[in-house]
Amino acid sequence: MKRIVLFASGSGSNVENIANYFKDNPLVTITSVFTNKRDAKVIDRCNRLNISALYFNKESFSKSDCLLSILKGMDPDLIILAGFLLKIPKNFVTAFPNKIVNIHPALLPKYGGKGMYGMNVHNAVKNNNETETGITIHYVNENYDEGAIIHQAKTTVTKEDSPENIAEKVHALEYEYFPKVIDQILSN
Ligand code: GRF
Residue 97: is the preceding peptide bond cis (ω within 30°)? Predict the structure, then answer.
């Protein structure tokens, strides 16, 4: 049995999509979903999907070993960041080498780094008149959005596309590829 732990800060539509993808797979289980936002929509989704959701505050994450100990106890095969906005502390990266995977809603190294999340990314893509954007699934190291790239997928951006359209296109790619890539990593 492979164990996945997910981290999310917001809506959690990727969490739900990943949960649905693995729900009939007896070899993969979602142990828990961690969130740093007490009112994140992902908590409602977890309640509905019958998945354990755990809220933690920033201090227990970055200033103590509290959360790390809980996570180690869960012995996850993979830790998935699905719309998680805090920087992963160094002691987490050291404790789980090549086991923390993030999805970024752009074609890294473009539009990565601090402040580049959510609509900020899609607004920047629009403002720079890009003709394509996409997703990057990558391992997490100590720097924002700089770990080794596992998979990228592209979509076109037309002049008519608004940042909201771009976000929709990118989300569609996330739903299509993220669970499959997680599945592949788990079976390697
Ligand atoms: C996704 O676009 C993901 O790439 C980014 O945050 C968004 C999360 O969306 N890092 P959701 O919470 O899964 O709906």
Answer: no
- pTM of the predicted protein model: 0.96
CB of residue 161 inside a 6 A radius of ligand 1: no
Q: Is 177 within a domain?
A: no
Q: Which atom of ligand 1 is nearest to the CA of 104?
A: 4
Taking every pair of Cα atoms in the chain, the longest distance, rounded to a whole number of angstroms, is 50
d(CA 108, CA 81): 16
- The atom of ligand 1 lying closest to the CA of 42 is 12
Confidence bin at 64 (pLDDT 50/70/90) = confident
What are 124-158's pLDDT values in tens digits? 999 999 999 999 999 998 887 789 999 999 999 99
Q: How many domains does the chain have?
A: 1
CATH of the domain at 6: 3.40.50.170
Among 14, 39, 125, the mutation site with the greatest number of ligand 1 atoms within 8 A of its Cβ is 14
Span from the CA of 120 to the centroid of ligand 1 (angstroms): 12
